[in-house]
Amino acid sequence: MIPDMNDPRWSRVLTSDADLSAASLATRILVTRLRREVAAAPTTLSAKIAELRDFVAKNAFASADVARF
Asked: ∠ at Cα 31 (30, 34), nearest 5°?
């Protein structure tokens, strides 16, 4: 099950420097890009959470990555 948009894990993964080495390459690339974008423009956090959540919803392999967040 994919966490709701308001789940604090989404915000935490995009605003922290937590290690992503256990995640798939595609997820690592996306999260790294989203982290940079959020750092540059913090007001975009909710849009970036939506982007990450959509990615997870469309890619079954990413569900396992989210479970580690």
From this structure: 85
pLDDT in tens, 29-38: 999 999 999 9
Distances from the Cα of 31 to the Cαs of 20, 46, 57, in angstroms? 9, 14, 15
C-alpha span between 47 and 22 (Å, rounded): 25
- Tokens read off for 28: 């690592």
Q: Write the DSSP symbol of residue 15.
A: H
Query: What are the domain boundaries of the chain?
Result: 8-67
Q: Are 36 and 15 in contact (CB under 8 A)?
A: no
Phi, psi of 2 (to 5 degrees): -90, 130
- 45 and 15 Cβ atoms separated by less than 8 Å: yes
pTM score, whole prediction: 0.92
